[in-house]
Write a structure and sequence with these properties.
By secondary structure, this protein is mostly beta strands. It contains no helices and eleven strands.
Length: about 130
């Protein structure tokens, strides 16, 4: 069974930091782009950050650029999201995702339907 399992969410005060982790099992995702999406209550699921398969290209949504950092350890089949200077607007369920099994040479796919594998989500709540 193929799974992505997130961890590291929680409650933090504005200005604080959290690090999310997502570990895959059942197969390797070393050739897949990996991403973090988030979904706030009543809103659509939006991309937050993407890292390409080799780890040398990243994409960040404007709202998190300069505050969040995505990275991966393909040997451990794990992707990370370091979140600094958190704001109440960052409150959401955060989802880890792995891209479809097709070549993404140097690309950082950003659409929901670019991703076939999803974690169950982890809640991040930022208090003011």
């Amino acid at each position: 069974q193929v799974n992505l399992v997130e961890s590291g969410g929680g409650l933090v005060q504005a200005g604080g930091s959290l690090e999310l982790s997502c570990t895959g099992s059942g197969r390797s995702f070393s050739r897949n782009a990996m991403a973090w999406f988030r979904q706030a209550p009543g809103k659509e699921r939006d991309v937050v950050a993407v890292v390409n398969w080799s780890g040398d290209r990243t994409y960040y949504a404007d709202s998190v650029n300069g505050r969040f950092t995505i990275s991966r350890d393909s040997i451990k089949n794990t992707v990370f999201l370091q979140m600094n200077n958190l704001k109440p607007a960052d409150t959401a369920v955060y989802y880890c995702a792995a891209s479809r099994d097709e070549p993404w040479p140097g690309q950082t796919p950003r659409r929901l339907n670019d991703y076939d594998f999803w974690g169950q989500g982890t809640q991040v709540t930022v208090s003011s």
